[in-house]
Amino acid sequence: MNIIEIAGQLEQTGYIVLDNPLPDKLTTQLFTRCQDDDPARFQAAHIGRGTDKKQINSIRGDVINWLDDADSTDRAYLACMETLRQGLNEALYLGLFDYECHYAIYNAGAGYAKHSDVLAGKNNRILTTVLYLNEDWQSSDGGELVIFEPTGMEVIATVIPKFGTMIIFLSESFPHEVLISHNTRRSIAGWFRVSGS
Ligand code: OGA
Ligand code: MN
Crossing angle, helix 3-12 and helix 72-92, to 10 degrees? Predict the structure, then answer.
């Protein structure tokens, strides 16, 4: 990963799409980990927090599993993101304190309606990252990530969730939406946060 390039682009436009920032071997191992093999491992994702917490399939249809420090593949990914965290703090003085991330599987028919990643009453999420794990993704598979400019009116980027692509964006600035996927769509979504959570 070229941290200087990432920092520069985040400063200029607030987001960056990277083609293949991680070694292919690691991306493949992450794909293997992102399998719904044990029914207890992946759980329906929720929106909101505390008493506002809801699970509404029509808004958010993925199932998720938080990365596990005890797994060597997960640890390798977390180590890469730790390097990025430190580099971005040095370059941009963001004061990023930690990183949380989960695998996500959108089965055919699932999407995630337009939303912001900054939870109501909480603004500790600073940067969102999504790494896509899908080989041979076809345009007919749908599932694109659509990024809107801050007012939410205009589309500024459409990202195809293909193997190895990573997007990084300022969590508070960009409403975004996952279009309905017509194939099994795998990714790791994560957030660099400042302390106070
Ligand atoms: C999220 C999200 C985008 C994607 O999990 O909050 O917006 O492309 N994911 O999977
Ligand atoms: Mn989101």
Answer: 60
In this structure, are residues 103 and 110 in contact, taking their beta carbons and an 8 Å threshold?
Answer: no
Q: How far is the CA of 189 from the centre of ligand 1 (A)?
A: 6
Kindly give the number of the ligand 1 atom that is closest to the alpha carbon of 45. Answer: 5
pLDDT exceeds 70 at position 197: no
**What is the pTM (predicted TM-score) of this model?**
0.95
176 vs 190: CA distance, rounded Å? 14
Strand runs labelled E in the chain: 15-18, 43-44, 63-66, 98-106, 112-115, 125-132, 145-148, 155-159, 166-170, 176-178, 185-193
**Which residues lie across from 112 on neighbouring strands?**
60, 178
* Cα 117 to ligand 2 centroid, rounded to whole Å: 5
- Residue whose CA is at the smallest distance from ligand 1 atom 2: 189
Measured CA to CA, the distance from residue 175 to residue 153 in angstroms comes to: 9
Q: Is the CB of 166 under 6 A from ligand 1?
A: no
- pLDDT tens string 60-87: 999 999 999 999 999 999 999 999 999 9
